Every structure is written in C-alpha cells, then in structure tokens.
C-alpha cells in the first residue's frame, strides 16, 4: 500500500502521524500529573512508568512493525536512538528552567534508581551480542531477562519512593512533589484513565504509519536503516517526550519531567524484547550492524552523565545550564556528526 505512493504523499503521511503523536503527547502530560496526585504514586513513579510507557507507544509500534518486516537494524536503532534523543531533550528542558539546574531542583531518589536501572538494561544487549548466538523459539534469553529486570525495577522503584534509605538534601531551589488537592477533585479517575488509553491508541496507529513510511524510504532511496531509525523515526516518535517534559517543567512538575524521560528510556529498552520476538530470522542481537551498537553505547554514556548529574546536584551552571546537561548535548551532537559523516 505505501510502496506505490509518491514521495509527497509519504512525507504527508509522515508529517500527519508526527502531528498526532505530538498533540496526544502534550495532552498526556496533564493527565499524568493529575493521576499522580489522584493515585498517590507520585510524579516520579507515574512519570517513569505510566507516562514513560504511554509516550513510548508509537515508538514501540515502529520497532515491532519493522521487526515483523525483517528489518532488524530499523527496529533496534529506533528504540535505542530514541533513548539518546530523549535524554538530550531533558538537557534542553534544563535550559528552559531558569531558577536552577533542573537535576538539582527535581531531586528524587526514584529517578536516580531508574537511571541506574537503565544503564543495567542497556548493558544486556552488549552481553547478548558478545555471547554465542542462542535463541529459544526465536527469542534470545536476554530479551526475556530485559522484561524480568524491568518489571522488578518498577516494583523496586515504588519501594524506593515509599521507604527511601537515602534522601536528597532539600535546598531553597528543591521543588517537592506535592499533590494539588483542587485538581484531584475535578475529574473522575476512570475518565482520566479512559482518556489516557484513547490517546495512547491514537499514538499507536501513528507509530504504525511512521514505520511503514520509513521502510519505504529506506528501500527506495538506499538509506541506512540505522540512520533512519536513530535520527528519523526515533526523534519523531520521541517528540511527545520533548513536549511533555517542557510542559511538565512549565507546570512546576519537575519530578514528572525528569521521571518521564528516564522512565520512558527504561521502557524503551523493552523495544528490544518486542523486536526480538517479532524478528523471525533468529536472535535480533546478531543481525545488527556496528552503527546500531554505536547508538547503544551513546545512550549508555548519556545516561551515565545524567545519573552522575543527579548525584552531584550542581545548583547553578554557566549560562543557566548544568554541566551534565552540557555534557549530554555535547555527546549527542558528536554522535550525530559521527553517524552522518563516518558511518
């Protein structure tokens, strides 16, 4: 269906799907903030799990569709490239928040924990690549391990928030996570959840359309699947994270902003499990190119810088941007340059 369409029509579909993702993602932030207050789970956990999963749905569909079509590089690089792009978006949000370094103001142990969990999850595909090729029913054991560790990490994140063994030092710029009682009483929780689910469904359909357009463009113009996945579909499907992060910062929901990015990135590692299940020609980890793993290591480096910044908690940086944010943006810029020029 898509393969016979002219370039103008393909780009029109791509742009329309991107707009759907953008508008739905914007609306999800407000709903997630209200649900965090209504359920009592807090902004960091709701941002990391519910909002992170919701804004990642379109990217999930892109990776699954690509894997089912036998496009291992596109499926893998879409998820991993999204992690790098979304981490860069958090650094952009730091430049918008003028009062202090965002990682300082949004101090929350659950976010630090999820950042460390993300580094562990990103290391597992490297282990799969370097180990002998093994597949059970076409799925590598690491894909199952990713799912198990993610599920355990969600439970542990909630325990860390409820009964923290470490607590950040509060300063004049620390923004606590305090429920808005007035907001909580305005809408029924069931309506909030139903609206949330409906927006997620729209984003999923848009993600399917983006995957199909990307596949046609890759074949028709001989583009690198890694390049298309990491810098085209990944960035577009990550737009909700940029919008929701900036919107959350503007609302003062700082833990939601940071948690949404880190939690979304953690959820995005499950793209690999889904892609491995959809890819039917063996283990997806051994069907990849060097460029795919280049973006995996880039994501690990950017995440490590973010976690270190959360622990160091620099209050103010030059030009109102934290050193960790400057480092994250620098690494991302260099990665794009290397991908575009040398790979």
UniProtKB/TrEMBL annotation:
Keyword terms of this UniProt record: Membrane, Transmembrane, Transmembrane helix
Gene3D superfamilies registered for this protein in UniProt: NCX, central ion-binding region
InterPro entries: K/Na/Ca-exchanger, NaCa_Exmemb, NCX_ion-bd_dom_sf
Chain segments annotated as transmembrane: 6-24, 45-68, 74-97, 109-128, 134-157, 190-211, 223-249, 256-274, 294-312, 321-342
One term under GO cellular component: plasma membrane
Domain Sodium/calcium exchanger membrane region: 11-155, 193-339
GO BP term (any one): intracellular calcium ion homeostasis
Membrane topology: Multi-pass membrane protein
Pfam family, one: Na_Ca_ex
GO MF annotation terms: calcium channel activity; calcium, potassium:sodium antiporter activity
Subcellular location: Membrane
Protein name as catalogued: Cation:H+ antiporter
């Amino acid at each position: 269906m898509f393969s016979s369409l002219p370039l103008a029509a393909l780009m029109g579909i791509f742009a329309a799907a991107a707009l759907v993702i953008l508008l739905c993602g914007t609306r999800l932030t407000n709903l997630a903030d209200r649900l965090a207050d209504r359920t009592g789970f807090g902004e960091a956990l709701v941002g990391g799990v519910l909002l992170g999963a919701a804004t990642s749905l379109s990217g999930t569909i892109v990776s699954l569709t690509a894997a089912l079509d036998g496009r291992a590089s596109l499926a893998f690089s879409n998820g991993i490239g999204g992690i790098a792009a979304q981490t860069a978006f958090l650094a952009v949000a730091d430049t918008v928040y003028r009062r202090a370094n965002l990682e300082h103001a949004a101090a929350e142990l659950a976010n630090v924990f999820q950042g460390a969990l993300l580094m562990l999850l990103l290391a597992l595909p490297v282990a799969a690549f370097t180990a002998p090729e093994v597949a059970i029913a076409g799925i590598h054991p690491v894909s199952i391990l990713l799912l198990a560790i993610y599920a355990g990490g969600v439970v542990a994140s909630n325990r860390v928030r409820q009964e923290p063994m470490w607590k950040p030092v509060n300063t004049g710029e620390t923004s606590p996570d305090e429920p808005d009682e007035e907001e909580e009483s305005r809408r029924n929780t069931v309506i909030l959840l139903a609206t949330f689910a409906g927006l997620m469904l729209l984003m999923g359909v848009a993600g399917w359309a983006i995957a199909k357009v990307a596949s046609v463009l890759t074949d028709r113009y001989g583009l690198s699947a890694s390049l298309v996945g990491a810098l085209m579909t990944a960035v577009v499907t990550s737009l909700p994270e940029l919008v929701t992060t900036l919107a959350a910062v503007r609302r003062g929901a700082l833990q939601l902003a940071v948690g949404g990015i880190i939690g979304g990135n953690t959820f995005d590692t499950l793209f690999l499990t889904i892609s491995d299940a959809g890819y039917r020609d063996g283990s997806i980890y051994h069907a990849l190119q060097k460029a795919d793993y280049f973006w995996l290591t880039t994501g690990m480096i950017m995440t490590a810088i973010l976690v270190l910044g959360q622990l160091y908690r620099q209050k103010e940086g030059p030009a109102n941007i934290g050193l960790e944010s400057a480092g994250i943006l620098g690494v991302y810029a260099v990665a794009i340059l290397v991908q575009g020029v040398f790979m």
